[in-house]
Amino acid sequence: MTAWRENIRRVTPYVPGEQPKDTGIIKLNTNENPYGPSPRVKVINENMDMLRLYPDPTASLLVDELARYHGVDSSQVFVGVGSDDVLAMSFMTFFNSEKPILFPDITYSFYDVWAELFRIPYERPALDENFRLVKEDYDKENGGIVFPNPNAPTGIYEPLDNIEEIIKNNLSSIVIVDEAYIDFGGETALPLIDQYDNLVVVRTFSKSRSMAGLRIGYAISNSELIKALNDVKYSYNSYTMNRPSIIMGAESVKDEEYFRKTVEKVIHTREKFVEDIKSLGFSCLPSSANFVFATHERIPAKEIFEAAKKAKIYVRYFDAPRINNYLRISIGTDEEMAAFVSFLKEYTKL
Ligand code: PMP
């Protein structure tokens, strides 16, 4: 092999859900929100001149608005280009021990990719037979812990007492709780930040704020850890957040009423959808997210996935151990879910 080939960093990248170019598709495969962002969030097309200038590297407009919203100091908020960026920065900043970091065997499939990319050793304790986190498995030496709550792709929420126990039993390492889906169910770990200096909570605008296309995520923690994150960010790329994102993100946070209303709508549709497909022979794991993880009593998930795709309905299928007979179905509008239920009604009859 040519010498330089040996020096290339080789990774198996994360595979995001498909973003089809076709029109007329019912898209339930990447946990987007079917409702638009708050009407306050306007594309700023009259003021293109602003793009001439670099953005504020501290993104203070958005940071201050998030601090106000969560009742914390601005020094406790870090923003990034989607929570993927915030999580990647967090892995780089906090997971630098020789000991393995821990995350569940079934979870967000980016965690192992970042661990490989940054050469962080890792172990993956198995979820139990009901896909619940086994908190005792995290009572071992480690170089850090990360998990989503609610978990993905299961949608299962882990009660805060259990989360607290994991944080409390691991005071010598950083625990990252990825709350990408928390607005759709469950109690946030944010209040624990005042008690535990090893906790980082990560959030996103992509799901409950319906702004996946803009790419905004953030972390909340104590000011020491947020400074560490910012120091790494400024050593990598000072201007991660562009001007329109900073402005539109701040506008979204100001519109609490719209946020609550659309989140409630998604939850309501989710509950109805779960009932509807139950009568067709599906069972769903209890979901606290904007998606459900469903399996059919008779028909293999992969077949349903492929048939639905032919009918222009996209859901997500993971060909991975333990979950390869499940479909992850994002919650769309009532009309979209009704169309999917009609399809399933016909399909399951065959
Ligand atoms: N965490 C979890 C658990 C997710 O499912 C996702 C969505 N792919 C993300 C983080 C990243 O979301 P985003 O980068 O859009 O904020």
Polypeptide structure, described:
33% of the residues lie in helices and 13% in strands. It is α/β, with parallel strands linked by helices. The chain has a five-stranded mixed sheet, sandwiched between helices. It has a four-stranded antiparallel sheet with strand order 9-10-13-12. A two-stranded parallel sheet has the order 1-11. It has two domains: 17-35 and 257-348, Aspartate Aminotransferase, domain 1 (Alpha-Beta Complex), CATH 3.90.1150; 53-254, Aspartate Aminotransferase, domain 2 (3-Layer(aba) Sandwich). Helix 4 links the parallel strand 3 (101-102) and strand 4 (122-123). The model has no long low-confidence stretch (mean pLDDT 96). The structure holds 4'-deoxy-4'-aminopyridoxal-5'-phosphate (PMP). 4'-deoxy-4'-aminopyridoxal-5'-phosphate binds next to helix 3. 4'-deoxy-4'-aminopyridoxal-5'-phosphate (PMP) is lined by residues 82-84, 108, 148, 152, 178, 180, 204, 206, 212, 217.
What is the compact description of this entry?
The protein has 350 residues and is of the alpha/beta class. The protein has 10 helices and 13 strands.
Whole-number mean pLDDT: 96
Low-confidence segments, given as residue ranges, are none
In CATH, what is the class of the largest domain? Alpha Beta
Strand neighbour order, sheet with most strands? 2-8-7-6-5
Specify the number of helices. 10
* CATH-level-4 superfamily name of the largest domain: Type I PLP-dependent aspartate aminotransferase-like (Major domain)
DSSP, total strands: 13
Quaternary structure of the protein:
single chain
